[in-house]
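[#protein-structures] MJ: dropping Manganese efflux pump MntP here for a structure pass
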Amino acid sequence: MVALKMILLIVSLGMDTLLISISLGFIKTKGKVKIALIFAFAEALMPLVGLFIGKGAGQLFGEWASLIGGIALLVVAVWLVFFEDEDEEDKLERNLVGWTLIITAVSISLDELAIGFSIGLIGIPIALTIILVALQAFVFTFLGLAFGSKLKRYLGEWAEKLAGIILGLLGLWILFDAILHLYHHG
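AK: finished. C-alpha cells for Manganese efflux pump MntP:
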C-alpha cells in the first residue's frame, strides 16, 4: 500500500512538470540537462521546506501555495505571449536562464511544498519520497524539453506563443483549483 501511495504521489506531482517542460521545449532547446537539474532541485527542495516550516505555519501557507504558483505561471505566460521580442531571429534557440528559469522552477514546485507539510502524516518514507520526486522531475523535465523541441520545427513562429498559451492555461487551471480549494476550506 505504501508503494502505491508513493507511485501515485510521484506521478501526479510530475504531470505539471511534464506539461510545462513540453511547452518550454517549443522555445528552449539548449541546456536541457541544466534545466532538468534545476527543476529537480526545486522540486526536491520544496518538500523539505514544507517539512521544516511545520504543520501550523504550513497549513496557512499551504492553502496559498497553489495560488502563488498559478499566478507565477501566468506571469511567465504573459511574458512569452505579449512581451517577448519577436524581432530576434534566434529567439527560439535561447536558453531558459535567469529569473525566468527560477520563477518557472519555483512555480511548478509549489505543490511539492504543500506535500512537505503533510509528508510525515501520509505514511510514506520522507527521504525516499524526496529522492523519487527529484528523479521524476529530472526525467519528466528532460523528456518534456526533448519532446517539445521535436515539435518545435512543425510549429515555426507559433512555438513561443503556444508555449505561453499552454503555460497560461496550466496557470489558470492551478489558480482556479486553488481558489476552489480555498473557497471550500474557508
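MJ: nice. The helical segments are 2-27, 32-53, 55-83, 98-118, 126-155, 158-185.
AK: one more thing. The CA atoms of residues 21 and 27 lie 10 Å apart.
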